[in-house]
Design a protein that fits this description.
The chain is of the alpha/beta class. The chain has 2 domains: 130 residues, Resolvase, N-terminal catalytic domain (Rossmann fold, 3-Layer(aba) Sandwich), CATH 3.40.50; 36 residues. It contains 7 helices and 4 strands. The termini are far apart.
């Protein structure tokens, strides 16, 4: 059976676009139907598409193409482990942003290529890991700055019903039971008690 070529693309969030990676992979010759896409963080390798590709699709003799090293992971130890596993599987990994991984050396010079790639992967893996640390640090700083400005996180609170004050007064003086108030306000039990606790 012919050796096959597959591509893998990853973006961190559903809002990000993977078109740049797909264009690079198809331009290199990866059939579009052979490209697996994940929309997930690169903090580790537990991603549905990636694990399916690795466990169910790829086999000895196949080639996996990715645009950049950090599409595998932003964790250096994960990157090194995954590349070793692909090597043990007999799957060749080509990284478009590391041109030496695209080169075919004669068997007797393969050790040179492996040495060069190991150095590049070590450096770029460290850069990817450092970039993730910086992203997380910026997120923490942004959250702390927002908290100092009293910015609230989570879903915005719903406005009070127009007749809230009147109904609330009736409940306080015993003219209405909470269940009657909920029906009149047209809100759920959880919403009623949340508003009650916040505005009583």
């Amino acid at each position: 059976m012919d050796n096959r070529i597959y591509g893998y693309a990853r973006v961190s969030t559903r809002e990000q676009n993977e078109d740049r990676q797909l264009e690079a992979l198809t331009k290199f010759g990866v059939p579009e139907q052979n490209i697996i896409i994940d929309k997930a963080s690169g903090k580790d390798t537990e991603r549905e598409g990636y694990q399916y590709l690795k466990r169910q699709i790829l086999r000895k003799g196949d080639t996996l193409i990715i645009k950049e090293l950090d599409r595998l992971s932003r964790n250096k130890s994960d990157i090194k482990r995954e590349l070793e596993e692909f090597k043990d599987m007999g799957v060749r990994v080509k990284i478009l942003d590391i041109p030496t991984t695209l080169t075919d050396f004669p068997p007797e010079q393969a050790w040179i290529l492996e040495m060069i790639n190991s150095i590049l992967i070590e450096v770029l893996g460290s850069i990817a890991e450092n970039e993730r640390r910086k992203i997380r640090a910026r997120q923490r700083e942004g959250i702390e700055a927002a908290k100092k400005k009293n910015v609230r996180f989570g879903r915005p609170s719903k406005p009070l019903p127009d007749n809230w004050e009147q109904v609330l007064a009736d409940v306080r003086c015993g003219n209405k039971k909470p269940a009657e108030a909920m029906r009149e306000l047209g809100i759920s039990r959880s919403c009623y008690y949340r508003l009650w606790n916040n505005h009583k």
